[in-house]
Amino acid sequence: RILTELAAGTASYQALCKATGLSAGPLQHHVRTLKQAGLLQTPERNAYAITDLGRMCLGLLRAMSSLGHRQ
Q1: How far apart are CA 42 and CA 34, in angstroms?
Q2: What is the Cα–Cα distance from 5 to 19, expressed in whole angstroms?
Q3: What is the CB-side half-sphere exposure of residue 29 using CA atoms within 13 A?
Q4: Which residues contact 50 (CB under 8 A, 6 or more apart)?
């Protein structure tokens, strides 16, 4: 859900909390994991953006999801 939200554009930490419904602790964990994987970046303080690699992964996840719904 985080990558999907960021695909629309840069978002603040507070905006991600609201959009995903995650509290601060779990969101921080997922953001840290996604940053370490190179899927999101922090172009400025308190701003998060999806990377090119993140966009590619999100596209693959969406394609795999649509294949699963065809059965």
Answers
A1: 11
A2: 7
A3: 4
A4: 3, 6, 7, 39, 40, 41, 58
3-state DSSP call for residue 12? Answer: coil
> How many Cβ atoms from other residues are within 10 Å of residue 25's Cβ?
8
Q: Is 43 helix (H, G, I), strand (E, B) or coil?
A: strand
Model confidence pTM above 0.90: no
Query: Could you report the per-residue pLDDT of 9-24, keeping only the tens digit for each?
Result: 999 999 999 999 999 9
Say which DSSP state 9 is in. S
pLDDT in tens, 18-61: 999 999 999 999 999 999 999 999 999 989 999 999 999 999 98
Instruction: Write b or e for each residue in 27-63: b if 16 or more Cβ atoms lie within 10 A of its Cβ, otherwise e.
Output: beebbeebeeeebbbeeeeeebebbeebeebbeeeee
